[in-house]
Here is the input.
Amino acid sequence: MSDAQERAWSELAPRFVIEVPRDLAATSILPGSAIEPAEVWGRDAPLVVEIGSGQGHAIVHAATSHPGTDFLAIEVFRAGLARTMLDADRAGAGNLRLVEANAPEVLQHLLPAASVDQLWVFFPDPWHKKKHTKRRLIAEGFPAVAAAALKDGGMLRLATDWEDYALQMREVMAVAPDFEPAFEGEWAPRFDGRVLTAFERKGARVGRDIRDLSYRRRPRS
Here is the structure.
């Protein structure tokens, strides 16, 4: 991290970062470590979670635009979290918290079941080399993990600029019994709650189509 990011971590982490018990890995979460969102945020409010928040552009913008909603950024790269905190502090985003951890473990061990109103996965690592595609987040086991964390009627929003990953996402979600599409046709319209970042503009500039998908969590039986 840069010196500014190091300072941000030491000065701002106590306010923004949720400290979690670790399992074996540095970014793991010990099972049985569920938080109570109302205690963490100090109120009862809708909760939006972004997986892979990167530099935090999308979630900081969303948090400042929707002060009545609580937001959680999940990221494993500390430099990105530090940048997110710097921007959140400048913007006065008191409704944003961050966690440095693997996303599936956050959904399984940190967040209570049926506690999330929206789950965002925008431009996850495409692992575009064939030998690495098995590392992609949106794969066979992911929908069940997401469904457990989402409230009935909660939304899962996906976006990618890699066409084969978009197709994989759609195939995976098509057979997920806990979800139904929240769009008609092949692709969802662009989610207007996602700020247009430099990353997305760059993808469009080099000719990549931005694909959005959105799914609603079916009611539990």
In short: The longest strand covers residues 150-160.
